[in-house]
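Sequence, please.
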């Protein structure tokens, strides 16, 4: 028999007799901080959520509309991660008329769509989640702009698509090395911090 040292970690049984190892990092995403921001596209339009119309689109916004802030001041919930190379895991929520809505992705008629549902963003996410996006620098030479990749489908990014006079928020499949300006977003402080 070999005389190797074997490192043993203490364990404890938690609620429902779940097994926990002391001093090991959890794989669950745990909320670390919340940033209050507005999201701006390459056309200098702000993302505005209108839950009553079930739409989120980039719009030209006046200073007065910006002050009222209806549906455009986002909380970006940043989570701790054990896999930082994928990007910072984030979730989005927005207040509209004293109600909180969170962004999620759902499949409808075979197509992935963005929805804003009434409710709160969870503090911990134990596994995969349709509300998590990985915040990544848009390009190496453009450190103030970002892209947001959907955590459950690699290569799917938040972007905008023209639909009539609207620039609707969508999920868009983008090849790995392609630079697509429709997914470029600036994350700007909304003066609440």
């Amino acid at each position: 028999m070999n005389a190797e040292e074997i490192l043993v970690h203490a364990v404890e049984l938690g609620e429902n007799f779940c097994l926990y190892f002391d001093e090991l990092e959890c794989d669950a995403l745990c909320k670390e901080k919340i940033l209050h921001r507005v999201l701006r596209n390459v056309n200098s339009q702000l993302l505005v959520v209108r839950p009553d119309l079930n739409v989120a689109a980039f719009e030209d916004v006046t200073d007065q509309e910006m002050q009222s802030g209806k549906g455009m001041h986002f909380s970006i919930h940043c989570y701790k991660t054990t896999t930082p190379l994928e990007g910072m895991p984030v979730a989005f929520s927005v207040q509209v008329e004293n109600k909180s809505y969170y962004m999620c992705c759902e499949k409808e008629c075979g197509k992935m769509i963005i929805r804003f549902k009434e409710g709160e963003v969870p503090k911990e996410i134990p596994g995969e989640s349709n509300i998590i996006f990985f915040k990544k620098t848009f390009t190496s030479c453009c450190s103030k702009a970002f892209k947001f990749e959907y955590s459950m489908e690699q290569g799917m990014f938040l972007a905008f698509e023209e639909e009539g006079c609207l620039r609707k928020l969508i999920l868009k499949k983008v090849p790995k090395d392609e630079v697509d300006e429709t997914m470029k977003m600036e994350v700007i402080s909304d003066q609440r911090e």
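The helical segments are 63-68.
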